[in-house]
């Protein structure tokens, strides 16, 4: 018997289960979507802010650099003159802050604070405490030294891109140090005053005086610089040159010469074509004038430079009386006039073992009156002779040589008195601003001096100084006993030119250095 199979019927709830499963999946997808949206939105916002922040940081840095460039350009444009006669003019320097926009169509801007210094601020821990004063329209001034020309400037430039908002930088700041192109080269040329008059100087009559013009006494020029017809340079060949006579047509200029060859008593001192500076021996020898022990300009013989004795004739520059218009003539050195050349007239041929002061660069360390017992030394016009070995002992000082691989050497500085055969050492008083003397050498601490040379490892403030302990050999005011010449003392080391001996010029080139972000 065949059984009939009952038809299979679907469960009445099967369709509802499918629908419930689909709804759960949908809800889950929606929930995940919402969660992802919640995560992505802040990420997108943050990315946008980061992009804007990075963009404004770059623009702000560019703006800060633009501020540095503008300030350097302004400084380099602070000049006077034209053509080859352009020189820097500190009265035109920007005092700051220097501010502006990078582009008139954009928000990027800069503001630069400028500080000026007489020293390199990179080498000082707190340079801002010793900045030069700066007043717009008047320029820079250093109260400590009286200097008006800066050697360095420091810039602090802040670049911004509009007002700082959410997502943009408040600005970026960079600093840089600018080195001015400067030189402290001493330029020869000054007046030669006759002692005793108080106000009479050598005078050529006019700046363009021709050859053959007789030199006379005239009231000393009070202008700065002095009147050109009174400005003479004492050159290394011992000639006295009228500086204004140097022209394109006559680059050698005119020098003082005796009216006759050989020179005679009563000869007028006249202008004559200068011998070329490097010509040795000087031709004519009548252009050689030795500043002697008595402060006189003494004539030469044709053999003075070659005999080894430096013998000079008994002929010195003099005037019959000290009054305006009197001719300068040659007469016996006995009783002849003494002359007081200003330091800028120059040192002639002076060199080691003479010690030339760099501030009074026509004057040398000198044992006063050739007396080793004198209570102070002086900075006296550098003594000369066509034969260098004939210069008197009281301006000849010997120190240990600085080894080639060293910046300095320490030891005694001495002179040998040829009158008594004794050696005397430069002696510190041991107290600030006290007079330096010479005394018999003992090897004590007060006779130990550190002499610094021109090593590139040294700052220029240290170069060419002579130091006892912590004090530097320098210049002090004249003593009433001998009022014409500065005295020698020890001072707080300051790197000033009056504390430098046998120095060479400090020439700085224009550079921008030590650039960094703060």
Structural write-up:
With 518 residues, the chain is of the alpha+beta class. It has a 7-stranded antiparallel β-sheet with strand order 22-23-32-31-30-29-25, with no helix packed on it. It has a 5-stranded antiparallel β-sheet with strand order 3-4-7-8-34. It has a 4-stranded antiparallel β-sheet with strand order 13-14-15-16, with no helix packed on it. 12% of the residues lie in helices and 27% in strands. The protein has 3 domains: 28-180, no CATH class; 187-346, Trefoil (Acidic Fibroblast Growth Factor, subunit A), CATH 2.80.10.50; 347-504, Trefoil (Acidic Fibroblast Growth Factor, subunit A). It has 1 helix and 34 strands.
Attribute tags:
3 domains; elongated; disordered N terminus; 27% strand; Trefoil (Acidic Fibroblast Growth Factor, subunit A); alpha+beta; seven-stranded antiparallel β-sheet; 518 residues
């Amino acid at each position: 018997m065949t059984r009939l199979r009952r038809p299979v019927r679907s469960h009445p709830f099967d369709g509802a289960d499918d629908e419930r499963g689909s709804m759960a999946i949908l809800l889950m997808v929606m929930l995940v979507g919402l969660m992802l949206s919640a995560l992505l939105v802040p990420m997108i916002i943050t990315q946008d802010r980061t992009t804007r922040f990075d963009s404004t940081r770059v623009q702000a840095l560019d703006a800060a650099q633009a501020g540095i460039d503008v300030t350097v350009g302004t400084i380099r444009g602070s000049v006077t003159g034209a053509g080859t006669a352009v020189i820097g003019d500190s009265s035109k320097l920007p005092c700051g802050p220097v501010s502006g926009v990078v582009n008139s169509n954009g928000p990027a801007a800069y503001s630069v604070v400028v500080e000026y210094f007489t020293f390199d601020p990179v080498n000082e821990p707190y340079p801002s405490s010793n900045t030069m004063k700066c007043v717009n329209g008047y320029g820079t001034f250093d109260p400590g030294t009286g200097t008006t020309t800066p050697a360095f400037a420091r810039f602090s430039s802040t670049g911004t891109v509009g007002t700082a908002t959410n997502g943009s930088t408040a600005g970026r700041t960079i600093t840089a140090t600018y080195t001015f192109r400067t030189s402290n080269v001493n330029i020869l040329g000054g007046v030669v005053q006759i002692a005793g008059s108080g106000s009479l100087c050598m005078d050529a009559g006019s700046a363009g005086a021709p050859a053959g013009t007789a030199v006379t006494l005239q009231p000393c020029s009070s202008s700065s610089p002095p009147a050109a017809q009174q400005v003479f340079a004492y050159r290394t060949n011992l000639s006295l040159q009228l500086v204004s006579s140097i022209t394109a047509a006559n680059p050698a200029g005119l020098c003082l010469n005796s009216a006759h060859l050989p020179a005679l008593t009563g000869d007028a001192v006249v202008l004559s074509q200068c011998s070329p500076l490097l010509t040795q021996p000087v031709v004519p020898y009548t252009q050689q004038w030795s500043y002697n022990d008595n402060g006189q300009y003494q004539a030469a013989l044709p053999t003075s430079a070659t005999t080894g004795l430096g013998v000079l004739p008994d002929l010195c520059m003099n005037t019959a009386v000290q009054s305006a218009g009197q001719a300068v003539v040659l007469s016996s050195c006995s009783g002849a006039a003494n002359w007081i050349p200003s330091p800028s007239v120059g040192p002639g041929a002076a060199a080691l073992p003479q010690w030339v002061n760099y501030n009074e660069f026509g004057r040398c360390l000198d044992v006063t009156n050739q007396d080793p017992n004198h209570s102070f030394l002086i900075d006296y016009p550098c003594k000369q002779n066509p034969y260098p070995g004939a210069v008197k002992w009281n301006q000849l000082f010997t120190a240990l040589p600085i080894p080639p691989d060293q910046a300095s050497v320490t030891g005694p500085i001495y002179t040998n008195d040829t009158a008594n055969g004794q050696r005397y050492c430069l002696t510190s008083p041991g107290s600030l601003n006290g007079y330096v003397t010479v005394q018999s050498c003992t090897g004590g601490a007060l006779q130990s001096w550190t002499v610094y040379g021109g090593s590139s490892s040294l700052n220029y403030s240290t170069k060419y100084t002579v130091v006892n302990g912590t004090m530097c050999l320098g210049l002090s005011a004249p003593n009433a006993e001998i009022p014409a010449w500065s005295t020698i003392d020890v001072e707080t080391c300051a790197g000033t030119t009056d504390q430098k001996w046998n120095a060479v010029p400090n020439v700085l080139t224009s550079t921008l250095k030590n650039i960094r972000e703060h």
